[in-house]
Amino acid sequence: SLVRHYKFSVISKNSTRLCSTKSFVTVNGQCPGPTLYAREDDTVLVRVTNHVKYNITIHWHGIKQLRSGWSDGPAYVTQCPIQPGQSFVYNFTTTGQRGTLLWHAHITWLRATVYGAIVILPKRGISYPFPTPDKEKTIILGEWWKSDVEAVLNEAESSGLPPNISDAHTINGHTGPVPGCTSRGYTLHVESGKTYLLRIINAALNDELFFKIAGHKLTVVEADASYVKPFETDTIFMSPGQTTNVLLSADQGVGKYLIAVTPFMDAPIGFDNVTSIATLRYKTTPPYPTTTLTTIPALNATPLTSHFIDSLRSLNSKEYPARVPLTVDHSLFFAITVGLNPCDACPTGSKLVSALNNITFVMPTTSLLEAHYYNVKGVFTDDFPAHPPIVFNYTGTQPANIQTNNGTRLYRLNFNSTVQIILQGTAMIAPENHPFHLHGYNFFVVGQGSGNFDPEKDPLGFNLVDPVERNTIGVPNGGWVAIRFRANNPGVWFLHCHLEVHTTWGLKMAFIVDNGNSPHESSFPPPNDLPKC
Ligand code: C2O
C-alpha cells in the first residue's frame, strides 16, 4: 500500500455558465475539483489550504475513517472549520474499501461548487468481480445556480421559506445547451466494440437524479463503493451523495446518442424540471444527428425509483461477503418531519424546520468530537430520543402541533454494538423522499416499504442475506427504510438528509461511539494542526 499526497487549494474563480459569469469557490480552480485516486488499503493525505473569505471543511463521503474521525470533515461535528489563510491535512486510509465515492465541502452550501470524485482501485493484482472494462470514465452530476449560492442560502434562512431552485444540472461541470444560450455540453467519447466502466456520482445539492443514455443498456455493478449483483437497466437513479458504477458496451458502432440527467421530485412543492443533456459520441462519427431518448423519466416517476432500488443486492460472494448484523442491540425509530416554528424576523412570522423525532438539530459553535474527546460539558447532551415523542399515523393525518424542539442531542452507542434504525417518512407539511447519509460506516438496507412501518409484520420480510450495503439511502415519500450496522468505529458520526436544504432546516443528528479499547480515547488523538474555533 502507498501513501498518496494531494494539495487542495481553495480559491475563488470566475467562470461563465448559462451565459452568465460569477465568482465561486473551487478547489484548485476546477469545478468539479480534482479526482482523488488511491488503491484499497492506501493512506491518503490531503493538505487543504483556504484562500477564500469563507470558512471551509472537506468531507470524504463514504470513506469510513477507521479511527481517523478527525479527518471526516463535517463542520462543528468532527472539526472546527479551516479559517481563511489556514491549512489542515486530512489523513485517512482506504482500508477495506474500493470503488467510487465523492468528496465535498461540508459547511454551509459550499459543496454546490466544491466537490470531486474519489476513485479507489482494487489492490494491485486483484481484478473486479465483473468483466474487466477496456476503459473507465467518471461522470459527476451537479447543480448550478447563476447567482451566488451562499446568497441563496442566506435568503432562504432569513425568509424561512424554501430556497430558489438551481438553474441547471451539470454533467462533469457542463450545463449543456439551454434555450437562448449555446453551450458545448459534455461529450462522452467512445470507441466501437469497447466496454466502459462509468463511475457515476450524484454531487447535486438538493436533487435526486435519473441518468439515461439513448440506445444503450447499462449494467449496474456497484453502488456507494460496494459491489452488487449485476443487473441491466436503461435508467440509473441516484440521490445526492450516492454513486453507481455501470458497465456500458459501446455496441452501436457509430453515431451520437443523447445522455439525459433529469430530476426526481415527488414533493407537492418545489418544482424543478430542468433536464440537462450531454452526448455519447462514437469516434469517427460523421456529422450525424443525435439519437434522442424515446422516453425521459417523469418528474414524479416513483415506480422507476422503487424498481431501481429494489434491484440492488449485495454481491455477497465468497470474496465479498455481506456481513449483515443478525441481532440488534440498539433498536431505533426515527420519524422524519417538516414543521413550522415561530420566527419573529421572518416575513410570514414562521420558518420551515425539519426534525428527527421532533428534534431540530442545532449545531454547536465548537466541534462535537472535541467536546466528546475532552469531555467538555455543556456542548451537547446524549439523550437523543430513540423513538418519536408521540405515535401518530405517520403517512396519514398530521398531528395538530407541528412545532419542533431545538436541541444538540446525540445518541450514544456502545462500541461494537449492532444498531437498527427504522427511518419513517411522514406526511408532515412536505412529504418527500429523504436521502439519509451516515458518516463513519456503511449500513445494510435490510427492508423498505410504503406506509407506516409495522413492527410486528415488516421485520419478517427483512433481507438479512444479501441486502445492499451503502452509505446513503432514500427514505421513500410515504414510506420507511430499515438499516443495520455494527458500531465498530469510535468517534462522533453525523446522520443527516443529503438534500442540503433539509440539513439546513435541522434534519440531522449525531451518534457517539465510544472507544472500545481505551476509556481515554487515546488510540485516536487529534492531529496537531486541527483547526480551532
Ligand atoms: Cu456527503 Cu455529511 O455528507
TrEMBL record:
Catalytic activity: 4 hydroquinone + O2 = 4 benzosemiquinone + 2 H2O
Gene3D superfamilies xref list: Cupredoxins - blue copper proteins
Coiled-coil segments on the chain, per record: none
Essential cofactor(s): Cu cation
GO cellular component, one term: apoplast
This enzyme's EC code(s): 1.10.3.2
Domain Plastocyanin-like: 12-123, 136-283, 384-516
Matching PANTHER family: LACCASE (PTHR11709:SF317), MULTI-COPPER OXIDASE (PTHR11709)
Protein's name in the database: Laccase
